[in-house]
Amino acid sequence: MAAERRRRAAAELYGRLLRIYEEGRESTPEHPCLFETDVEICLIGGSHKSPIERFWNGNNMIYILQKARHNEESDAMEESKPDDAIYASELLPKESSGPVALSVRRAKQLISLYTMVQNPNMTHLNISDLVVLPPLWIRCDGSDPEHTCWLGAEPLKAGNKITGINFYMVTCDGPTADKTYFANLEELKMAHKMKHHSSIVVTKGFAQYELIRAAVIEDTIVESESNIYVDITWNTVNKILETPPLVSAATLNIILESGDPRSPVYQLYRELQFLLALAEGLKTSVTEWPEPLESESAVELVQEFLTDLKKKLDGYCISGSKNETEKIKCDTAAVDSSIKSIFSERGDLDFAEQLWCKMRSVSSYQELIECFTLIIKSLEHGEIQPWIHQGSSSLLSKLIQQSYHGKIEVVSLSGITPIQMLLEIGLDKMKKDYISFFIGQELATLTYLDYFISTSVDLQEQVHRVQKLHHMLEIMVSCTVLLQFKHENLFPLTQICMKYYKENPLNEKHVFQLPIRPALVKKFYQNDDPEIWKVDISSGHGQKEVKTTWQVSTNPPVKHMTSNNTGLFSDSTVNGSSEERMYFITMAKCSQVHFT
User: Has this prediction a pTM greater than 0.90?
Assistant: First the structure.
């Protein structure tokens, strides 16, 4: 009877796995599949990040098996139907609702069933046209003495024929600061040789160092995911936790959220926030006015500005004089002196752009109308003859051009018109700010920037593209100020960012990656402990390759286990010191079984 139940369970598992695999060839299934009421099966591939990428380097689709959530929430819940299933994305690690692991005993049962249905010699299962299924990985709860957190199985094949199975086991202990628990590299190599009957092994190292992370400002944690870290890989490891040699391959990873008050371009960020508030007001007809950027009211600033222009017109009779187009710096656009060399305020602000600098202090709809009323009256009466850049299509620019001929059209300052007028001149000004930076630093050409400054799309999309420009600016400025990057590094980074943003929406959680030489950033990590340090010990080639991985990491290596269910060391802060860096210790081993 037990053998018959096992045969039926294997056949049912194969059916479920095959169905999910066939659906996944078209597109990743939205819902996981339930197996025997307690197991959820999900197919992960494509854009989904593999949760076991640190320990398995396959790049195809994989099955992830874990405990069905409804068992946790309610034992009385009915067996799920496909329409009731949770979304596949929920199987991926999340802070709010993490995945749930199966017991190691249950995981071993499932691995056994998977092995049965992939073994072509199991003819009694009556499987016709046996399909080679994707690798299968199971989340484990660490309930065994080894504290197993993953079990995996991957078919070995020759052509379309399955010849064996690779078994994987990932275990985790920690966290601990006691380095006496750390492995000895020579012992790891010897254990690998003995297990796999290998005479020669190859070692490969990996280390990850944080270079810049959101830090504490005046005893307050900045709520930001910003981080700049470097991944380094090298061949031939000589000892555990060795510093990577300078001949290593390195990749800089940049995650940057705009709006850090410490940023040298924070004022420009606040300017952008005002622009976004106007865009939202245009869309919803409800404007939430942000805190004014100036202490003086916008009406007072505009009135003073217009008075100065009238005096200038009275003092200089020759129309078109160079003095009229004298470069006037925006007195409210000051930026941090440390960044002036790479992001300096423009000296060619025209009338509309200078108005924007004054009107960023608008704090109400009524104040906005008062400002534009003053401006339009000055234009109608010929009291000012302002200079503007060519190419602007804003309504205010059109009125200014009409004023040159002594007559301007009547504009009704009601509804959303005043908000749109201010949004247009703000967009024009900020686009030129970003153009000035990227072209001035020789990071892009005007042609390459055309997508980001195009006026052929609606105002909302133009604002969205300006947000992208700002995010790229923050990245370049951060790398310049914090990492002392020069043009040779900033230029390829700019191309990477622009290529991404021409194809994707704004995403400040995206990781931008730049290949670099370790020497470029070594001074930032050479005296620090790594966040992750790993050694891979391998032997064999092709499908006969076997690998042992030993890793330490400051964060838990898997999301479905915490320090409460990993193997805790009671003396995790040895010698009475709590300053030592705490590490989780992870081991990944594999073994092969060949079918005869």
Answer: no
